[in-house]
Amino acid sequence: xxxxxxxxxxxxxxxxxxxxxxxxxxxxxxxxxxxxxxxxxxxxxxxxxxxxxxxxxxxxxxxxxxxxxxxxxxxxxxxxxxxxxxxxxxxxxxxxxxxxxxxxxxxxxxxxxxxxxxxxxxxxxxxxxxxxxxxxxxxxxxxxxxxxxxxxxxxxxxxxxxxxxxxxxxxxxxxxxxxxxxxxxxxxxxxxxxxxxxxxxxxxxx
Length: 206
Fold this sequence. Notes:
The chain is α/β, with parallel strands linked by helices. It has two domains: 2-18 and 88-198, HAD superfamily/HAD-like (Rossmann fold), CATH 3.40.50.1000; 21-85. It contains twelve helices and seven strands. It has helices at residues 21-32, 36-45, 48-54, 59-70, 76-85, 91-100, 114-118, 120-123, 128-131, 146-156, 170-178, 189-198; strands at residues 7-10, 17-19, 87-89, 105-110, 135-137, 163-167, 182-185. Strands 5-4-1-6-7 form a five-stranded parallel beta sheet. The two termini are 23 Å apart.
């Protein structure tokens, strides 16, 4: 069963990088001259952020609506900088990716607007050398909807039974399994290494 894994598909936030939403919200609040609580409610609690993830808003409408909701005419550069400041690459996970690339393909599927993938080289420059063009934002339908995984798989041209998906949210893991993928709930680097060994993907490695 495990010999069939040909590609490991990674979530981004809190898997390949540490993502501090509170830091991002604080940065946005400072720009708007308001409170973090106001920004969080306007963007996240309201469901607005999910509209960008699911593709209900295109990138331009998302950015414009983002600024309107927080009461500040947010520029693209400001949006990117607030996002960038909240992200820190996981060196341990990226080292695992480097090792995996010796024997299997790797890709990224993140619940995010296309602004993230369009500006990834600024946001998280460590990813492009490892994943190349195989970095996908949900942007049409979001995880955990099984359609999100199927759309990504159609781009990758890989069958679901040949993919191991890795995500920090159990709901997204369940959605991947519903779509026919193998899936791992990411809780720590150590547990991920163990899971990869059990799948036969890092045997003989430390």
